[in-house]
Design goal:
198 residues, mainly alpha, 3-stranded parallel β-sheet, 10 helices, 3 strands, elongated
């Protein structure tokens, strides 16, 4: 929640890549948020310090769900200092890593999700794991850790052409054409830790 529409749209897009099953809503002020009645409770509130000042007591009560969008102009006080923070001035790769760390630490193994959603996600994870070969999983891990094709070939003792074939097959199986989506997949499915991303 905040008044910078471009920032909110960009964050919404990133979150939709990380958690594609979630509904990501944008509210420009707390009044809009309170007038909306969701079918299920919100998992998180991404807020600016200005949004916090609009309804501090609400966000204090929901502090475990709040993620403060911070930059070098954000003035932190004893209350907003208690929230998890997302640095909005990070380069895109670092911001993605920070979001994945938040997701991984808060929802590892879908433990905080509603039971039916957790079961669906675990079933989907199992289905995809059955379609990926052990070698493809090794390639995913190394790609996510920042290794290039030549380095992957050396580590796995295979040819560069074989690495390229594995990458192509992985992208087809996961219906993905970008490395950032592959990174998101690898972290959210437990193949690598967000801390290992390069």
């Amino acid at each position: 929640m905040g008044n910078n529409s471009l920032t909110m749209i960009g964050l919404k897009s990133l979150l939709e890549d990380i958690i594609p099953f979630a509904d990501i809503l944008i509210f420009h002020d707390t009044r809009q948020l309170h007038s909306h009645t969701p079918a299920t409770p919100f998992f998180h509130y991404f807020i600016t310090s200005a949004a916090y000042n609009e309804d501090a007591s609400f966000y204090d009560e929901n502090r475990n769900k709040v993620i403060l969008l911070a930059d070098n102009t954000t003035s932190l006080n004893e209350h907003t200092n208690q929230f998890r923070k997302l640095d909005m001035l990070l380069p895109p790769e670092e911001m993605l890593k920070q979001l994945l760390q938040i997701q991984q630490h808060a929802h590892h193994g879908y433990t905080n999700y509603p039971r039916q959603l957790a079961e669906t996600l675990n079933n989907e994870k199992q289905r995809v794991q059955e379609t990926l070969s052990p070698r493809e999983i090794e390639v995913i891990r190394l790609l996510t850790k920042g290794f290039i094709n030549k380095e992957i070939a050396q580590q796995l003792n295979i040819s560069i052409n074989t690495v390229i074939t594995h990458r192509k097959n992985i992208m087809q199986k996961l219906h993905s054409q970008s490395l950032s989506k592959l990174v998101i997949y690898a972290v959210t499915h437990g193949y690598v830790s967000a801390d290992e991303i390069k």
